[in-house]
């Protein structure tokens, strides 16, 4: 392989080179004879005795402090609810779409056409995920974590076919208590004013 025109995949040349290198460096074999059975440690699954970490106890007071107070007069429209969610979450964008992905209300940086696209994809994802969930465990939220943003879709079902989705785009992930509070509030408020 001294010249540029020589093939680098010549099997005979590679074999000769391998034999020459093996003769120059004699390595003492540490392998057992061919007929000996290798000894491997057995793989035995032993569940740990440790209990999984328990969720911290959350009181009703903690739940109420996790989210800003609702307006005393309630929400007069979906727009007022979306603005409240937007401020409560400190979101980049907050929107409500129907089961077909059409924007009903939008607040924040995303224009309607982008909210509609994200909303349609969230609606489709939730529809597909609803197919694999059993009737006892209703899908409430889907969360997509990207490098620089997080997208949440909170689903409120009016019936098997009709549902609303509160879509939220944030720079930071939502705290668990805040997420639960938004889910509860959305489930209570959206069907009443929708």
Commentary on this structure:
By secondary structure, this protein is α+β, with helices and mostly antiparallel strands. It has 5 helices and 5 strands. The chain has a 5-stranded antiparallel beta sheet, sandwiched between helices.
What would CATH call the homologous superfamily of the domain at 73-193? Answer: Dynein light chain 2a, cytoplasmic
Number of E strands: 5
What would you call the shape? elongated
Helical proportion, percent range: 25-40%
Task: Report the radius of gyration as a whole number of Å.
Answer: 30 Å
- CATH fold name of the domain at 73-193: Beta-Lactamase
Specify the biggest β-sheet.
Answer: 5 strands, antiparallel
Mean pLDDT: 75
Order of helices and strands: HHHEEHEEEH
Please list the strands of the largest sheet in the order they lie side by side: 2-1-5-4-3
Q: Could you list the spans in which at least 5 consecutive residues all have pLDDT below 50?
A: 42-47
| Count of individual helical segments | 5
Estimated structural class = alpha+beta
CATH architecture of the domain at 73-193: 2-Layer Sandwich
Measured distance between first and last alpha carbons: 78 Å
Could you tell me the strand content as a percent range?
Answer: 15-25%
List the helices and strands and how they pair.
Elements: H1 11-24, H2 60-65, H3 78-89, E1 93-97, E2 103-108, H4 112-132, E3 141-145, E4 150-157, E5 163-170, H5 176-193
Antiparallel strand pairs: 1-2, 1-5, 3-4, 4-5
Helix pairs in contact: 3-5
